[in-house]
Amino acid sequence: MNETKTIFSESQINVNLSTTTEFSMFRAPVLRTAEACFKALGPLAHMTDGSYCRGVWDTVMCWPAAKAGSVIRLPCPPLPGLIKENKAYKICGPSGLWETREKGVFTNDIGYTHYTECYSKEALETYMKYLGNKTLAEKEFIKDIITTSRTLEIVGLCISLITTIISLFIFWYFSTLKCHRTRIHKNLFVAMIVQISMRIILYVDQLVARETGGKIAGAASGDSNTIYDTPIFCEILYSLLEYTKTVKFMWMFVEGIYLHNMIAVSVFSGKPNYVIFYTIGWGFPVLLTVAWVIPMARINTIRCWFGYYMNPLIWIIEGPRAAVMAVNLFFLLNIIRVLVMKLRESETNEADKLRKAVKAAIVLLPLLGLTNFVIMLEPDGHDWVKFSVYSFSTSFLNASEGFFISLLYCFLNGEVQNALRRLVIRHTAYYATDISAAAWRVNTTKVFPVFFQVSNACAVMHARQ
């Protein structure tokens, strides 16, 4: 093994391994077990003279022995959210025992490793908010909540993907359904299909990265050769994910404009200007995404932009999305106002009026993207119950958005149901006719020979007479 170099600073010693030893020793295969750690350390696990802290494996990194009263520093592991160019460190006390989390308290166990300097700003904020000052049981509980909610989200996204694809096909296949409203629906469904597909790909890729490349402290080790462990390509896919997400919001905005103009502003009830709609829906998100990607690429050097949602730069694209939802909320309130005014002119009672108004509001919520207001709220990282409710509710709303929009605006739509009903009746009648014709052919093949035999017999009898 390479020699260690000691640098004395007051009462502490800073031990630095050579670059070759650092990277060969602390790659993922060595970090997974204590046995592999001590095998790699070899003679560096112990010292031959003086008081020292023995070599340890802290379940993440492998630490060589250190002299008493010293600080040993090693490169941070290449894990998501960590800056591998920075250093983690452990403190070896004057009695040859590792210092614990509590300053001045030492133990013969693995002690406490200071990873604070390894975290990026966003990752550190996330860690302190949800896992900081938590017991081991509390940390495991939070991790279980996150894992379960992510699993439910993937299942919900798959269901949403299937239903949106079917809905898009229905609107494309039936010529009777083609109109301005369904044309806008189709663009929204395309945006949702692409966005859901990319989210599923990235989620599954993260799972594969953990399974094939191994896990260190629950995170992918970086050795899986998956998208998650591929620099630049991973960042490109997350950029496309945010683009398609913005496209989805913009087409929800277009839905709000069209619906509001049709119901509340009848003067604009003519043919929509699709040049403007396509510019808003597909073009404007390109500008927003580029405006976000350029500073992100310069500032965020963390692999796969881990924790980028904690970075203030996210408001370059999140701000316009919030503005879209605010405008759509105005559209919804104005539509409800117009609807209530029209209901008052009718002869229906107040209960029916209220019921129809509430029904219209509930139906329009997912189409206008207003359920995303809940997702944008900050979860409480200190209360288990609140965090659990937030995790499961946001995962449900995020995953089922495509399903509910498909359900309300396709499968439960009267025009769609009539088109499907006519298709079923037409095919049923065709097969019924086809079956009747086939049965007639079978019966005639049985009846005609008998008929010919009877006719021949009658002819013979007539000839004999």
Number of helices: 13
Please tell me the overall pLDDT. 77
The strand count comes to 12
Secondary-structure element order, N to C: EEHHHEEEEEEEEHHHEEHHHHHHH
Strand line-up in the sheet with most strands: 1-2-7-8
What is the rounded distance between the termini? 124 Å
Structural class: alpha+beta
Protein name: PDF receptor-like isoform X3
Keywords: Cell membrane, G-protein coupled receptor, Glycoprotein, Membrane, Receptor, Transducer, Transmembrane, Transmembrane helix
Main location: membrane
GO molecular function, one term: G protein-coupled peptide receptor activity
Short description:
This protein is 62% helix and 8% strand.
Describe this structure in words.
With 465 residues, the chain is of the alpha+beta class. Helices cover 62% and strands 8% of the residues. The strands form five sheets. The protein has a four-stranded mixed β-sheet with strand order 1-2-7-8, with no helix packed on it. It has a two-stranded antiparallel sheet with strand order 3-6. A hairpin with a 2-residue loop joins β11 and β12 (219-220). The longest helix is centred in the last third of the chain and has 51 residues, at 414-464. The chain starts with a strand and ends with a helix.
